[in-house]
Amino acid sequence: MPDQTRVAPHTSDPVDAVVADVRAELWAAADPDRAPAMQAYMKSALPYYGVSMPQCRRLWRRCFDVALTNEQWLAAQNLLWDEADYREERYAAIGLARHRRFAGLQDAALLPHYARFIVGGAWWDLVDEIATHLVRDLLDADPDTVAPQLRAWSTAPDMWLRRTSIICQVGRGEDLDQRLLSDAIEANLDGSSGRGPAMSAYGKEFFIRKAIGWALRDHARSDRAFVAEYVDQHRAHLSGLSIREATKHL
């Protein structure tokens, strides 16, 4: 079982109270038989309590329905993230960031905050949740501010920021900015497939190639013609994986 001593006693500090509540709820729901398999599947250095994501989301609804100032909301996220001894505590940090009670606090100025989680998380379960919800929502709310920063991420030295720039529009449907998607993809085209001259060293990365295919496949739900034409025009530089993913439903 997880160490129950980590669960803090009752406290008047709202940040400590939220974090303690999360840990207490996770400890109570822990499944030590399931935890090792979850850790192995996710190749996580952090152990798991063994709490499924549907269970976690139910816990978040209870734990995060509290009044916090903007500063307290960010502090609680950072504490859950930075002092996590179990992976579900990092899921909790993202869950707190996404909670409906704090939707009014979302602002483009939070991009560096989310970038820290993306770079520090450096794995798909954490990064994709941030990219396709938190970053996407900021783009929806303030495209003039957020789109240029996403273009900068598409050429960043960190692969996970690059992946975020590609997949952050998944789910936008007809609101997707095709020029932004094209720019993000073209900054990361495959340079190792033998299909064309080298473009980006990041193009050989599985998580980049998969991201390109996923983003295009998702947009094909709204604009099949655009995706078909895009794949045809860039076939020489798209990896086989990206092409298969992009054209799966065409």
Describe this structure in words.
This protein has 250 residues and is an all-alpha fold. The chain has helices at residues 14-29, 35-42, 53-63, 70-82, 87-98, 111-121, 124-141, 143-153, 159-167, 178-186, 206-219, 224-234, 240-246. The radius of gyration is 20 Å and the shape is globular. It starts with 13 loop residues before the first helix and ends with a helix. Mean pLDDT is 93; it is low at 192-198.
Write a brief caption for the model:
With 250 residues, the protein is mainly alpha-helical. The chain is built from 13 helices and no strands.
For the secondary structure, the number of strands is 0
Chain-averaged pLDDT: 93
What is the molecular shape? Answer: globular
Cα distance, first to last residue?
48 Å
Percentage of residues in strands: under 5%
Report the total helices: 13
Report the biggest beta sheet as strand number plus sense, adding barrel if it closes.
none
Q: Using the CA coordinates, give the radius of gyration.
A: 20 Å
Roughly how much helix do the residues carry, as a percent range?
55-70%
Q: Regions with pLDDT < 50 over 5+ consecutive residues? A: 192-198
Structural category is mainly alpha
**What order do the SSEs take from the amino end to the carboxyl end, as H and E?**
HHHHHHHHHHHHH
Give the helices and strands, then pairings.
Layout: H1 14-29, H2 35-42, H3 53-63, H4 70-82, H5 87-98, H6 111-121, H7 124-141, H8 143-153, H9 159-167, H10 178-186, H11 206-219, H12 224-234, H13 240-246
